[in-house]
Write a structure and sequence with these properties.
Number of helices: 3
Helix content: 25-40%
Distance between the termini: 25 Å
Structural class: alpha+beta
Largest sheet: 3 strands, antiparallel
Number of domains: 1
CATH superfamily: Ribonuclease H-like superfamily/Ribonuclease H
Strand content: 15-25%
Strand order of the largest sheet: 1-2-3
Radius of gyration: 15 Å
Number of strands: 5
Shape: globular
CATH architecture: 2-Layer Sandwich
Amino acid sequence: MSFDLFDMSKITTIGGNRYCSVFIDNGRYATAVVHVTKDEIPEIFDRVLSQTPECQKPTIVKSDNAPEYHMQQLREVLKKHNVEGQLHSNEHQQSQNGRVEKLVDSIGRKIRGMLLQSQMPPEFWARQ
């Protein structure tokens, strides 16, 4: 499973969310979760892994080298779900986490394009 987090230029949604975490399993199924702070990542991971069928649960997760992925709480959640390893790409080497980085880029471009075309305010980048 690969994962990454992005924010839309520090613009909060109408629901007060600022970040979006994206998860891609090995079957290329993607899950996106919007949230308020980076501190919610362990809780979001727990929710996503709890909803993943046992036969599809990852044994290793990949991410970039962001500090929010080095929290003790996240390591405990991964251990709870029997995730044995956590791989991090080298700093400033997003291509090593390619699949999810490409999806995050595509999502961001589509959001911006739809907002521009619809002439909606930027706060509508997510429905929550």
